[in-house]
Amino acid sequence: MTSRLPIDKFRQLRTPFYYYDTQLLRQTLQTINDEAGHYPNYHVHYAVKANANLKVLSVINEAGLGIDCVSGGEIEQVLRAGFPADKIVFAGVGKSDWEIQLGIDNDIFCFNVESIPELQVINQIASERGKVANVCFRINPDVGAHTHANITTGLAENKFGISMDDMEGVILLARQMSGVNFKGLHFHIGSQILEMDDFVALANRINELQDRLEERGIFCEIINVGGGLGIDYENPEQNPIPDFKTYFATYNKYLKLRPHQSVHFELGRSVVAQCGMLITRVNFVKQATYKQFAIVDAGMTDLIRPALYDAHHKAVNLTSQGEEETYDLVGPICESSDVFDKDIQLRAVSRGDLIALLSAGAYGEIMASCYNCRPLPKGYTSDELINL
Ligand code: LLP
Known about the structure:
elongated, 12 helices, alpha/beta, 17 strands, about 30% helix, TIM Barrel, 8-stranded mixed sheet, Lyase, Ornithine Decarboxylase, Chain A, domain 1, about 400 residues, 2 domains, binds ligand LLP
């Protein structure tokens, strides 16, 4: 991964910036299509919240994936990138009227509805336009996931989804409405999940719920299991492509499908994380009483995951051949939490060195902010740097 980087090109660019290896992205997409392709009724939607860079989106669109959006802005962005509206699913606990209108006007594939008030508004807006909106209900399955508390979503205490107890009532209500068409169920239990048992637990819960619904004569065309497959942040170079084979095979083994049902996945991180890295330049090396700081020009405004979730992104000094030394890798922002990593080993760092923070293609560029009036980082693809 780091062995084929265009470092001379990097030197000419203003840092920090994101760099996307489109070759790895294409291989990842190919793997997804191959592995999901074993099961003809499986459909993968890319969760655009992970990365909405237009150049990245166009590669994903070439691979034919559908899309999972959580805002009107995301819908606009994926339409701009050329994705067909009839492959968009639209989730989110607090959709605004204009966002619902946008979805309906573009005839998106399905709304993932998270509450009764939301269902009523979708029904009203669709009816006013003489349309019928497809809806799935996001059910909170009360299934935990072995991941960071801030990215767990499927517990009863989380704000997401409709509780299992209310599921039948809401479906029966939707059936009486003329502006919506009930299609099925949607779930999402969390993100950066590496234990397949968590997905097994979800599949088992879905099986139970489906049995319960069928006793009431309710049949689902669509089962959307959300996303959540994690990646290897510790060894990105050894594991650049997540284990999609086991992931899809797990659902195939445990999720009991009825004939003509389709299963939808909303994968974000696992699609784009490993193909992206944040490239930053060392401004200063500072010797302090107990520490040696490598102070770089990227900060938590460019990559907030370490500050927000204690996330670890492997750092590599791309321009030094020196012996390894111990550093705290920190940014320039006026916040003590602006630390990428503590006590890490890097090849001897000097001013001007380029450092790569790996596995940053997901929830990196898209979560950047302008705090401290900093410009947003740019994103470059390997395809475009070849011609620079
Ligand atoms: N579907 C729904 C309904 C979601 O809420 C999410 C992510 C996904 C799909 C995609 O999940 P993935 O396959 O990427 O795990 N900013 C955090 C992650 C937040 C995830 C939010 N929801 C991070 O940087 O780790």
